[in-house]
Design a protein that fits this description.
By secondary structure, the chain is mainly α. 61% of the residues lie in helices and 0% in strands. The model has no long low-confidence stretch (mean pLDDT 81).
Length: 186
């Protein structure tokens, strides 16, 4: 095919004349090819949008789950089993009875005494320091009154005090519980 064959012939008023069929077929084939490429691009774009929507949904679900776990952990429930129990119990609360701020408000409104039985152990927090029984109420925690394990540092410190107090203080030290506990003598 030559260029003269594809070039329309001018008509009398200077405008181009009819387009030759070969050029028409060539342009039509190119348009059809480009339309197929455009359809493939549209399908690929639709697939990408669907994948983006799927990942956005996964991200939203993960962010919501993390927000729930963070709210539970801020209340002091850090055990995996406690997290599962709290989520399950909150899921059982009817939607109309749930606070506006979600699980954080639900947990914040309860104490260890008012919480569901399954959560009480997790909300109780750390146990309070043990108080001595009434029989030991007058006992102090001075190292000189212990009968348990005595460290070398405690033994040396008490021995130095006894030596500074003279022979009677040294004899009293040897008869006392620190000397006996440290040396194993009774």
């Amino acid at each position: 095919m030559s260029d003269t064959e594809n070039t329309p012939l001018p008509v009398a008023d200077g405008q181009p004349g009819p387009v030759p069929y070969s050029r028409f077929a060539q342009v039509n084939a190119k348009v059809t090819e480009l339309a197929a490429v455009a359809e493939a691009a549209k399908a690929e774009a639709a697939a990408a949008k669907a994948a983006a929507a799927e990942w956005e949904g996964k991200h939203s679900a993960a962010a919501a789950d993390w927000g729930t776990e963070r709210a539970i952990m801020q209340r002091g429930i850090t055990d995996a089993e406690g997290l599962a129990v709290a989520k399950t119990l909150f899921g059982m609360v009817p939607a109309e009875a749930r606070p506006a701020d979600g699980i954080a408000g639900w947990l914040g409104a309860m104490t260890a005494e008012t919480a569901p039985v399954a959560l009480r152990g997790y909300l109780a927090g750390k146990p309070a320091a043990a108080t001595p029984p009434p029989a030991n109420a007058g006992v102090t925690s001075r190292a000189t009154e212990t009968t348990g394990v005595v460290t070398h540092a405690v033994y040396q410190a008490e021995l130095a005090k006894a030596k500074a107090g003279g022979i009677d203080a040294l004899k009293a030290f040897q008869a006392g519980p620190i000397y006996k506990a440290y040396t194993g003598k009774t």
